[in-house]
Amino acid sequence: MSDYLWDKSGEPDADIEHLENLLGTLRHQPRALELPTEAHTFQSRRTFSRPALAVAAALVVMILAGVWFGVVQQRDARRDSPTIAANPATLQTTTERATEATREATPEVAVQTTPSNVGTESKTAPGIEPERQKQQVVNFEPNRKFRTRVATRAASPKQRRRLDADGEHGVRSHEATEMAAAPTPRNTRPELATLAAADLAERQKAKEQLMLALRLTTAKLSFVQTKTNEKSRGTGGAKPVYEERNRIR
Amino acid sequence: MLEAQISRNLLFMTAPPQGRTAATETADAPQTSRTATLVAAVAGGDRDAFGQLYELYSSMVHGILLARVPYAEVSDLVQDVFLIAFKKLPTLREASSFGPWLAMIARNRAMDFHRRSRETEELSEELARAATPHAEASEALEAIRSLPEAYRETLVLRLVEGMTGPEIAAQTGLQPDSVRVNLHRGMKLLREKLGVGGGRQ
Lengths: 249, 201
What we know:
The complex is a heterodimer. By secondary structure, chain A is mainly α. Chain A is built from eleven helices and no strands. Chain A is rod-shaped, with a radius of gyration of 41 Å. Chain B has ten helices and no strands. In chain B, helix 3 packs antiparallel against helix 4. The longest helix of chain B has 22 residues. The N terminus of chain B is likely disordered. The chains are: A mainly alpha, B mainly alpha. At the A-B interface, helix 1, helix 2, helix 3 and helix 11 of A face helix 3, helix 4, helix 7, helix 8 and helix 10 of B.
C-alpha cells in the first residue's frame, strides 16, 4: 500500500494526484484577518457583567425587603386579632351596636313571612326571641340579602349571648357594621397600651430599615449608571457584531 | 457494513494513543508547543500572535467548513470562526488543545449556518454549483460530501487543503491511526463513487 495518501511519501498515486490538482483549485486563499479592538473583546465582558450584577443584586434586595415587610405586617395583624377578643368592654360595645343595627333593620311595615326565610335565620341566630327573629327575617325583597349579612355577622357565638340583653340605641345598620368591623383602640388597658407602643416602635424600625435598603439600592443603581455612561462616552460604546463582520468583509 | 466501519473508526478514535509512531509524535510536538506559546501570547494581549495562529490553522478551518457548507460561504465563515475563537480564547483551558477546540468551533459554526439557512430560502444545488469556479472540482467535492462524515472531513483536508495525515491529526486532535483509516476507507469509497481507478488503492 502506497504511503502517498498518508504523508505524500513514496510513489504518487495517479488518481490521488488528479484529485489533488482538481480540488486544489478550491483551496483556502488566506486573506487578512481583521480583529476587533481589545477593549471590545476581553474587557467588554467585564464591564457588561458589572451593571447586570448590580441590577440583579438590587432586585434581590428589594424582593427580600418586600417579603420581610410583608411578614412583619402579617405578624402585626395576628397580634391585633387577639387584642380585640381580649377586650370585653369593647366587645360588649360592639355587640350592642350590632344588635341595635339589627333591631334598626326591623321593618316598620308588615310584610309576609316566608317559611324558607325563617329557616335560614333560625340557623344563624337561634338565641334570638322568635318574635324578633321573625321581624329580622321578614323583610321586603330588595334589602333581604343585606339584612341577612348583618344578622349573620352580629350573631357570632359570643355576641349571640348578649343579643338578648341589648339596649335601645338608634344606630343605623351600615354604621353598626362598620363599627363592628373597625379595630378596637388598644389603649383601653395599660399593658395593651405598652404593647401598642412596642408594636409602633417595631413598625417604625422596620420602616426605617426598608427605607435604608431602598436608599442603598438607589445609590448603587445611580453609581452603576454613571459608570456605564462614562465607559460608553470614553470608548465610544460597544459596537454591534454586524459592524465587525462588515469591517472584515 | 458501512455503519460497522464507522463505529470501529470511532472506537479507534477514542482508544488511547498507543499506536502512535515515534515519527508522528516528533512531528506533533513542535507545532503543539508553538501553538501553546502563541495562545499564551494572545492571552497576554499580543494580537500578532493571533495572526500567526490564523496562518497555522486557517486551512484546517477552511477544510472543515468546506466539508459541510457551500463553497461560496466558506470564506466568510472562516473569518467568523476566528473571530469567535478570538473572543472566546479566555475560556480555553489548555493552550495545547487550541486546534481541536478551533475545529469544534468550526463544526458548530457550520451546524449553525445550516440551522439559520433553513429559515431563509436556500439556493438550489445547481445554482450553488454554478457559483463555484470549477464545475468539475465542485462535482468531485459533492462526491466527497456524500460520504460519511468521518471520511468527508479527512478527505477534504487531504485532497483540497493539501495537508498530510500527520498534520491533520496534529491540528484536529484526532488519533493518527484513525486519520489513516479514514483516509484509506474514504478514498476507496470515493473511487467507487467517481468510477476511477477500478477500486485500487
